[in-house]
Design goal:
- By secondary structure, the protein is an alpha/beta fold.
- 41% of the residues lie in helices and 17% in strands.
- The strands form two sheets. Strands 3-4-2-5-6-1-7 form a seven-stranded parallel β-sheet, sandwiched between helices. A six-stranded parallel β-sheet has the order 8-13-12-9-11-10, with helices on both faces.
- The longest helix is centred in the C-terminal third of the chain and has 17 residues, at 333-349.
- Bound molecules: adenosine-5'-triphosphate (ATP) and magnesium ion.
- Residues 48-49, 137, 287 line the site of magnesium ion (MG).
Length: 350
C-alpha cells in the first residue's frame, strides 16, 4: 500500500525504515485517503500516529491535531517532520503551553493541546475554520484529563471535511462526541483493550512501601538498559529520582509540576540515551513512544487496569520484547488480583 503513495512520502518512509504498513495503517490510510472520517481503536505502539499523518501529508490538506499532553504533541511534530521532510515548504507548528516553538498559526499542520489552542482562539489569534481535517489523538486520555469539553468546544468551531479519533480505548463519551460531529463516522476497532502480547509480566510482593521497593528497584535497574519507573505521586517520583541518581545511575525525572522546558529536556534526554532510567508519574504513561524501553517498573502499583495497560504499553513497542515488573504491598492486593485475572483471560483468549 505504501507503493501507491507519492514519491515524497515513499522516500520519507524509506528513510524512516518503515518498510510496510502496520495493521492500523493498512486499514486507516485508504479510508482517510477516500475522505472518510474514522474512529480508531488500536493497541499501544501500533503506529496510529503515522496512520493519520500519512493521509494528511498525501492529501496536502490543512490539519489540526489535538493532543492531550505537550510531550505527545511534540512527538507528533517529530513524526510529521520525519514523514513530511521531502514535502518542500511544509509548515508544521506546535501550539502548547509553556513553549513557543515555531508558533506560526498559519501553518498547514497545527498540533496542539486543547487548553493552549482555546487560549489563542479566545484572543482571536487562531482560526479553526481553515482546517479540513481535525484529529483527536489519545481521545480516551482527553476524557480522563477533563479535556473533553475543550475538545467539544474546538470541534464546534471547526468545519472539517474529515475527522479522526484515535485511541487505545473508545469510552462511550468519546463515541458520543465523535458521532455528534460526524454521524457517519467509520468505527475501526482493531484490537481489544489489553496489554500487548510481547510483554512478560512479573509481580513482586514487598513488605515495606519504600525501603524494600528501593532495594528491589536497584537490582532490576542493574539488569536492564532502558527503564521507565512509575510512582503514584510526584513527591515519591522526586525522592526516588534523587535516590537513584545518587547511586550513579543516569536518571531523569518526568512529572507534571516541572517547568515545560525541563520536562521536554528530560524526556528527550532519556529518549536519546543520555539517561538510562526515567522516573515518572502517570503523566508519562500514555502515548509516549520510546522504541527501545526494555523494562517498565511499577514502583507503585497502578490505580486501575487502564493505567496498568498504558504504563506497560511503554515497552514492547512495534513487536519488540519487553518486561513489566510491579511491586506491591498487601494494600494493593485488590488491583494486582484484577490485573492478573485480565492477563490470564488475555492469554486464554489467544
Ligand atoms: N510502518 C511502520 N514500520 C515501522 N515502524 C513504524 C511504522 N509505523 C510507525 N512506526 C514506529 O512505531 C512506533 C510506535 O508508533 P506510534 O507512537 O504511532 O504508536 P501508537 O499506536 O500511537 O501508540 P500509543 O497508543 O502508545 O500512542 C514509532 O516509533 C513509529 O516510528
Ligand atoms: Mg499514539
Amino acid at each position: 500500500m505504501f507503493e501507491k503513495l507519492s514519491n515524497e512520502l515513499r522516500m520519507a518512509l524509506r528513510d524512516a525504515n518503515y518498510e510496510k504498513p502496520t495493521r492500523v495503517q493498512e486499514v486507516v490510510i485508504p479510508e482517510m485517503l477516500n475522505g472518510k472520517s474514522v474512529m480508531v481503536q488500536a493497541k499501544t505502539g501500533s503506529g496510529k500516529t503515522a496512520s493519520y499523518l500519512i493521509p494528511i501529508l498525501e492529501l496536502n490538506t490543512k490539519a489540526l491535531i489535538l493532543s492531550p499532553t505537550r510531550e505527545l504533541a511534540s512527538q507528533i511534530l517529530d513524526e510529521a517532520e520525519k514523514l513530511g521532510k521531502y514535502k518542500g515548504g511544509l509548515n508544521v507548528s506546535l501550539i502548547i503551553g509553556g513553549v513557543s516553538y515555531n508558533e506560526q498559526r498559519q501553518a498547514d499542520i497545527v498540533i496542539g493541546t486543547p487548553g493552549r489552542l482555546l487560549d489563542l482562539w479566545g484572543k482571536g489569534e487562531i482560526d479553526f475554520y481553515k482546517f479540513d481535517v481535525v484529529i483527536v489523538d489519545e481521545a480516551d486520555r482527553m476524557l480522563d484529563m477533563g479535556f473533553i469539553e475543550d475538545v467539544r468546544m474546538i470541534l464546534g468551531h471547526t468545519r472539517p471535511k474529515m475527522i479522526g479519533f484515535f485511541s487505545a480505548t473508545i469510552p462511550p463519551e468519546v463515541r458520543k462526541l465523535a458521532k455528534e460531529f460526524s454521524p457517519q463516522i467509520e468505527e475501526i476497532i482493531l484490537d481489544e483493550y489489553k496489554p500487548v502480547e510481547e510483554v512478560e509480566h512479573e509481580f513482586i510482593m514487598v513488605k515495606n512501601d519504600w525501603t524494600d521497593k528501593v532495594s528491589k528497584l536497584l537490582d532490576e535497574i542493574n539488569n536492564a538498559n532502558k527503564v521507565i519507573v512509575f510512582t503514584r505521586t510526584r513527591e515519591r517520583a522526586k525522592r526516588l529520582h534523587y535516590l537513584v541518581n545518587s547511586r550513579g545511575i543516569r536518571t531523569a525525572l518526568l512529572s507534571g509540576d516541572m517547568p515545560q522546558s525541563v520536562r521536554l529536556k528530560n524526556f528527550y534526554g532519556f529518549k536519546r540515551g543520555k539517561y538510562n532510567v526515567l522516573v515518572a508519574t502517570d503523566l508519562a504513561s500514555r502515548g509516549i513512544d520510546i522504541i527501545d524501553v526494555d523494562e517498565v517498573i511499577n514502583f507503585d502499583a497502578p490505580r486501575d487496569l487502564e493505567t496498568y495497560i498504558h504504563r506497560v504499553g511503554r515497552t514492547a513497542r512495534m513487536g519488540r520484547k519487553g518486561r513489566a515488573v510491579t511491586f506491591y504491598t498487601y494494600r494493593d492486593e485488590d488491583i494486582i488480583e484484577r490485573v492478573k485475572r485480565m492477563l490470564k483471560e488475555t492469554l486464554e483468549a489467544k
